[in-house]
Amino acid sequence: MKGIKDHVSKPLENSMFEFAAYDSAAAEKAGYSNYSYWGSTFRCFLKNRVAMGLLILLAILLVFTCIQPLLPGQYKAKLVINHPITGMQMMNVRPGLTNVQAKAEAGVVLTVTPWEDDKWAAVSNVIETIPKRNEFTVLEYGADFCKVDYKGTVGYVKNDFTTKLKLPEDFENTPYKAKSNFNVSLHTTPAELTYKGDELFVLKESIEMQADGTAIAIKEAELRLLPDVRPFLFGTNNAGQDLWAMVWSGTRTSLLIGIVVAFCQAIIGILIGVLWGYVRSLDRLLTEVYNVIDNIPTTIVLILVSYVLRPGISTLILAMSATGWVGMARFVRNQIVIIRDRDYNLASRCLGTGTFRIITRNLLPYLVSVITLRMALSVPGAIGSEVFITYIGLGLPINIPSLGNLINVGRKLLSSGSSYQLLFPTIVLSIITISFYIVGNAFADAADPKNHL
Known about the structure:
Elements: H1 2-9, H2 24-27, H3 37-46, H4 49-67, E1 100-104, E2 109-113, E3 120-124, E4 126-130, E5 136-140, E6 145-150, E7 153-158, E8 176-178, E9 184-187, E10 200-203, E11 207-209, E12 214-217, E13 221-224, H5 243-278, H6 283-294, H7 298-308, H8 313-339, H9 343-350, H10 355-363, H11 368-391, H12 403-412, H13 420-447
Antiparallel strand pairs: 1-13, 2-3, 2-12, 3-10, 4-9, 5-6, 5-8, 6-7, 7-9, 11-12
Helix pairs in contact: 3-13, 4-5, 4-13, 5-8, 5-11, 5-12, 5-13, 7-8, 8-11, 11-12, 11-13, 12-13
């Protein structure tokens, strides 16, 4: 204890001290916070599971839309698919996971059509066609097929409303003579192994050729629409084009229009909105410009621009961007008016800070949520406008696939039993619209500093 007291009682010399250099960054460490605006924004957004799920779905859809033409086994979007033998367009083929239309059991005799291919053969079970009003003998009556004899050739005739067999009172009393009011096909088996009367295709490894030109199925043979294993997942349209490829091609076109329009509206709207709200000398002029443009219905502008200019993607983008910026400018202007005279902005002006720096550093960061929401809603809005313009006949030409064109064509075929041609593009459009809306609202809420903890 005595040693300690002696040490304390000694005077402190200047050599025991040294001056510390001033560090402006270290001087504020006492008030330092690890808060990050964007980090907090993303953390708030990640808590919204519905928005995250839709964002992932939207990202997958966008990526798949871009890479779909590069995937193997894809038809070209605008390719008209014709039957290799008849040359007829493969119109309105129903959707399916496979293009197998029928199966021939082992031992079935098939009629072979000459087809120069080492892998595929064109086959059917149609022996010949019985001309209308030609007499034939019904050997056995069946609900679906009747076994008949036509000039010594025994086969089966389909028993439906097109055949219209003239039957005696006791049709089970066979044989008897009959006629058809229409041409009918004579089949080798009680089955119709064709698609709308056209030949189907089978792998040669499934059949055994005979000396008389026919073939026998050596195992269960899958008869396909085309000499190809690629299915029509969404079916084909009324022009014989693969609807799967058309939908994704149309989605790419519509998304291109929507995204470009959203960026154009954002750039023009933000620029005019900031000047409108912050530069007071421009307030009266820009207000009058806004009133003039806002009082002209957007639909009228879209119709006039689309009617005057040549229909195309650039025309639609111009027509939508011509008036779409007004909403963004109004929102930005209102927010700027609210915060332009706050203390930190007054202090910046008193210190001589330039207008551009005040706008970019003091004003725009507060508008992230508004801008994000408006841009997110602009994409489905632009796609919806494209669908409307196409619906009234002033949109993209029919040779440019788009969701608007596909929906317009599908609408016309709704009553013809081809509702799938309207269903698939409508589903894709709904996913895009709902996803952008919910994700945009969720991110706008997350970007609001009031929601940060």
